[in-house]
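explain this.
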Amino acid sequence: MIVRFGSLLLILYALGFLLFGVTLGAPAATDAARTDAIVVITGGTGRIEHAVEMLGQGKAKRLLIAGADPSVTKEDLVRRLNGRRTLMGCCVDLGSESVDTRSNAEEARRWLEKKNYRSARLITSDWHMRRAAYEFGRELDGQVTIVPDAVRSEPNFMTLFAEYNKYLLRRLAVWLDI
């Protein structure tokens, strides 16, 4: 009986991983509603570039780069992005308080509350979107409308495997209230 139950759990785990791998986050629709803000989580290729592009297209009033290294300046970003000095000066905030996805959500909540924003476009990698959206949803508790906008990537097996396990463990920790 224990072997059968263990086998069932293993099959469910494998099917869950398969489903996770084929249903990665997607970019927001081109006609997605304009939001008050954009929040981008650092750590993946193309995330900041996409966020600045969305800001430049007028998809939001302001951008928070959550989880930025404290040594990074707006001038560093201007160099990295080949310009965009005007956007960096007027409309971009660097958040360096967070170190992981959960603290990214906490940092974003404080920033959104301070600015009195009610909607935000969340930008992160496709493989990271499910966990990021979960953390942001928990932290913002329906007070802010989130528009997920995933940056497409080509995650390898280990990236997907690690992210799936982080997602499952976080959901389990919340369920167990630990």
In short: The mean pLDDT is 95.
